[in-house]
Amino acid sequence: MIYDHILQLSGNTPLILLHSKDIEHIDLYAKLEFYNPTGSVKDRAASYIISKVINTGEINQDTMIVESSSGNFGIALAAICKRKGLKFTCVIDPNINEINEVLIRKLGAEVVKVTEVDENGGYLLNRIKKVKELLANTPNSYWVNQYGNPYNSDAYYHLLGGEICDGLDDIDYVFLGVSSGGTISGVSRRIKEKFPHAKIIAVDIYGSVIFGGKPHKRYIPGIGSSMVPSILSEAMIDDVVIVDEESVIQACYELLDENIIFAGGSSGSVYCAVKKYFHDKKFSRRPKVVSVFADRGERYSNTIYNDCWATEFINKSHSLVN
Ligand SMILES: Cc1ncc(COP(=O)(O)O)c(C=O)c1O
Known about the structure:
Blueprint: E1 15-17, E2 27-32, H1 42-55, E3 64-68, H2 72-84, E4 87-92, H3 98-106, E5 110-113, H4 124-137, E6 141-143, H5 150-167, E7 173-177, H6 182-194, E8 199-205, E9 239-243, H7 245-259, H8 265-278, E10 288-293, H9 307-321
Parallel strand pairs: 2-10, 3-4, 3-6, 4-5, 7-8, 7-10, 8-9
Antiparallel strand pairs: 1-2
The protein binds pyridoxal-5'-phosphate (PLP).
Pyridoxal-5'-phosphate binds next to α2 and α6.
């Protein structure tokens, strides 16, 4: 099949069976979202939201699109805005991965970098303040606001949720990493409609406050948040598994070793959570478990997949524990 444009390849990502010696009593599938054109699950939300607001007339060709993102969403939005000929300003902070910043800039976005630390010791509050300032100073502007925009959740209800439902005859569990909450809100609603008995398991990381944890510095991007996203109130969550960063790094290496999957940090978190959840559970029939792998490992080559970084990180966590 010949496609007219690469962004048309968003979606229809593969669902594959994973093999792990620790959890041979479950059928574990991974939805490989890194097959999307800009490399992550976020292509779905970016394409859906921008098409939606064009169709509803909420934006026009002269609108300045604004969003705060240091990662995959910024890249996906930059790509779709370039394709549609829209102006896009991305608010980032100094913690951004160098490759992400290069991609966002090369895709034509205006980049505004917030450099002042906020009262929580991070940058999120100041990034949001900067977004609000830009909106106030730009008469025709639209804030995508992934943490609160219902179109974000709808994108995953219609697209990813629909594909997962169509991909299997039955589903018992779905494991999803949470950051803005858009993926889990949309996917959980869709899964529960078709498979009401299926359990939705949210995966978060220590240091994130989403499920009531104490905030502290996190090093693995793409999962967790320093605020509770309002969009999460739509999610139908049965259980939460919190993982630690050291185990996530180990899980990423295991995925590579056992399944030849070079996955990003949130995929490693989800894989780690599946293993933690099922290792001591017994079933009368093999449960069918779906995990969503949101991005690939290349963007983590300076961190998770850098031997010096990973070893130093693991040694540091041990010395903190001892
Ligand atoms: C790599 C990765 N995994 C998981 C997520 C979580 O998705 P959501 O923001 O929809 O909760 C994100 C979001 O940025 C991500 O970039």
